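Worked example

This section walks through a single chain of length 132. The input is the sequence exactly as stored; nothing has been trimmed or padded.
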Amino acid sequence: MIDVVAVALIDELGRVLMQRRRADRQHGGLWEFPGGKVEAAETKALALIREIREELALELDPARIVYLTEAADPAAGIVISLYTCRHWQGDPACLDAEALEWFTADALPGLAMPPLDVPLARAVKLVLEKAK
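Given that input, the structure is written out below as tokens.
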């Protein structure tokens, strides 16, 4: 299985940062949670911190990252572990995607996403609704 980590960055207004995949990549043009593959000898937390630094130029504190859920595609051999984070350092920069945008919980289900991001978005929506 290919381990992938992703994060739902939640701002002070309860919105989630999503990125749109580049058109030249698999699932191009679809919205996804930022993140990427876990490399050999890397923990999931360290992989997430590295990926978010590379994709968004943000610094995450491992103590502020909270595991939420995962989604898997056994046929493709992929499992995505999703975390939430409400505190980070820096302002998000679009370094590895077509666009970044903040979305409310109600807007998440209407986004065009890769298949594995859909159940992850449902889990995030539930967390945000409970926080109200």
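What to look for: Helices lie at 44-56, 117-131.
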